[in-house]
Design the sequence.
């Protein structure tokens, strides 16, 4: 099979293998940390969870760094990306350890959120840097398969980390602090793994570096304007980013729905609710894996926008068919299908951005990409908070999500035609 052959070739590339190891350890730690936060905020016995509480937690953890994200991109285009992975993961290991201490001390919620917020902040640099560095270790011919394997493997690592967190929580007598400490250890391992790569391997090129932080910060505004101007000239990348942002909104709304259904409608105890949520996350992770296998073939046959159109069109049809009953089994099937669709679209978008955007601007664009993801997810949680009843059953929200998928599919049809027309005019 071509996919298997390409995977073998990629795994022979030393730089790719080492970058992948950093990603797997880092995102595995993210999965552990996120499960610890979710169980602490959503499934703690002393907390009465509501959609509004979930939306508030997401806003506190994600929105402030939606403002910082573009600045992170400017710095990523000036700092050695290897150093970002090294020092970023070392810092996260220390901060996660501090979060565990705060959990044990039962401090006020605002102090806990402030600590968690700092870990999330550093994550903006690391994830954007991983995507921006990938073209430095893989040739253009195999970039699609690399985008299928690398981010999807990272997502699967996060899912595995979440499963490990559930296991540690059971062994440690429901101790969220012990789970956070496990995340800290994995962040440390990711930092050490980055040392296997040279400082220069992942770029950016030396002539683009500003060694002094003050110099980099002083040019931030100009860099942001330049990055946005560059993206506006790359219409294909801009259209793909717009579409995947809408899809992220839809996924976020359904994610909050599953949280509430797991907490109240599908289980009688909090332990049962956590188990059901774990199965839903695993189903979504299986969908991500399927996307990694299917996307290279699909993008090769349909093109990036064609594959995204198929994904959104399928989601528009399958979302109401599987979700309007609010039964557990159809929703778990939907978790798999939407995992495949969402990750398939992301793989296509990553490839479009990486091939359309110049390396000098890639860090900035991927940071903006990350910001769009955060804003869409938090916005979805806010809409869900307004529309969801306490048990999570809202036919209106499911219908809205289906309609947004349909609108996105139509937008992509138009974008695909425009891209073909522009290509014909240049040809």
Sequence:
């Amino acid at each position: 099979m071509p996919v298997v052959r390409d995977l073998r070739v990629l795994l022979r590339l030393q730089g790719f293998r080492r970058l992948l190891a950093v990603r797997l350890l880092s995102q595995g730690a993210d999965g552990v940390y996120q499960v610890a936060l979710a169980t602490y905020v959503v499934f703690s016995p002393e907390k009465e969870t509501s959609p509004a509480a979930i939306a508030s937690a997401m806003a506190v953890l994600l929105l402030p760094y939606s403002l910082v994200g573009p600045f992170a991109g400017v710095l990523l285009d000036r700092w050695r990306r290897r150093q970002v992975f090294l020092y970023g993961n070392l810092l996260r290991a220390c901060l996660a350890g501090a979060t565990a201490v705060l959990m044990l001390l039962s401090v006020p919620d605002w102090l806990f959120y402030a600590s968690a917020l700092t870990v999330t902040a550093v994550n903006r640099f690391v994830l954007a840097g991983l995507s921006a560095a990938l073209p430095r270790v893989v040739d253009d011919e195999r970039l699609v398969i690399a985008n299928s394997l690398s981010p999807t493997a990272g997502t699967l690592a996060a899912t595995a980390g979440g499963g490990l967190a559930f296991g540690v929580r059971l062994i440690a007598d429901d101790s969220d602090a012990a789970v956070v400490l496990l995340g800290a250890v994995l962040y440390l391992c990711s930092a050490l793994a980055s040392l296997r790569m040279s400082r220069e391997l992942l770029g950016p090129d030396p002539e683009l570096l500003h060694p002094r932080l003050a110099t980099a910060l002083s040019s931030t505004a100009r860099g942001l304007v330049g990055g946005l101007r560059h993206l506006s000239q790359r219409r294909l990348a801009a259209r793909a980013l717009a579409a995947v942002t809408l899809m992220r909104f839809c996924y976020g709304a359904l994610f909050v729905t599953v949280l509430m259904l797991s907490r109240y409608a599908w289980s009688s105890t909090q332990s049962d609710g956590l188990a059901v949520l774990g199965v839903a996350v695993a189903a979504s992770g299986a969908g991500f894996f399927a996307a990694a296998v299917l996307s290279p073939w699909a993008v090769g046959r349909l093109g990036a926008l064609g594959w995204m159109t198929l994904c959104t069109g399928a989601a528009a049809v399958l979302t109401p068919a599987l979700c309007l009953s609010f039964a557990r089994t159809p929703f778990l099937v939907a978790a798999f299908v939407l995992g495949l669709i969402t990750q398939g679209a992301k793989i296509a978008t990553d490839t479009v951005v990486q091939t359309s955007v110049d390396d000098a601007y890639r860090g900035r664009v991927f940071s903006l990409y990350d910001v769009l993801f955060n804003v869409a997810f938090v916005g979805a949680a806010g809409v869900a908070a307004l529309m969801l009843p306490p048990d999570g059953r809202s036919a209106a929200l499911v219908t809205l999500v289906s309609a947004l998928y349909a609108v996105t599919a139509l937008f992509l049809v138009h974008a695909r035609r425009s891209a073909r027309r522009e290509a014909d005019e240049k040809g």
In short: The two ends are 33 Å apart (CA to CA).
